[in-house]
Design brief:
By secondary structure, the protein is mainly alpha-helical. It contains 4 helices and 2 strands; from the N terminus they run H-E-E-H-H-H. Helix 1 runs antiparallel to helix 2. The longest helix has 37 residues. Bound molecules: zinc ion.
Length: 132
């Protein structure tokens, strides 16, 4: 199937505002990740959850594990969001932002406002989930 050339429904000003807010969110997430993870030079993962050192008593050990588990799951969800933001910014750069990656039709403005990292229109999303 040939890719249709479609004009994005978003004007330059809206796009610039979205880009700005995505960049702010990205910076905030990077800050958060910096607090709960450390960069690991030896492994290919960008971030590793910090294992805290509270002490050697058994309740302290239990707390260390609890915090580590929290950091791990929070870090994972932050990284997922970060990836979505990065790919949205990439689409802005390439000029494909606001276009559904499946049907190549413009994504409704209302949807983008609510979920600026959307890469698919509601119709395709629903179809993929088996809801339509
Ligand atoms: Zn679509």
């Amino acid at each position: 199937m040939a890719i249709k050339k479609v004009k994005t429904a978003l004007d330059k000003k809206t796009l610039a505002a979205i880009k700005k807010s995505l960049e702010i969110r990205r910076d905030n997430i990077n800050d958060e990740l910096g607090k709960i993870t450390k960069e690991d030079k030896y492994e290919h993962e960008a971030h590793k959850a910090i294992f805290p050192e509270y002490g050697d008593k058994s309740d302290e050990n239990a707390n260390e594990i609890a915090t580590f588990t929290d950091n791990l799951s929070l870090g994972k969800s932050l990284e997922d969001t970060l990836r979505d933001i990065e790919s949205a910014l990439d689409r802005i750069k390439k000029g494909t932002y606001g276009i559904c990656k499946y049907c190549k039709e413009p994504i409704r403005k209302e949807r983008i406002k609510i979920r600026p990292i959307s890469s698919a229109c509601i119709t395709c999303k629903k179809r993929l989930k088996g809801e339509a």
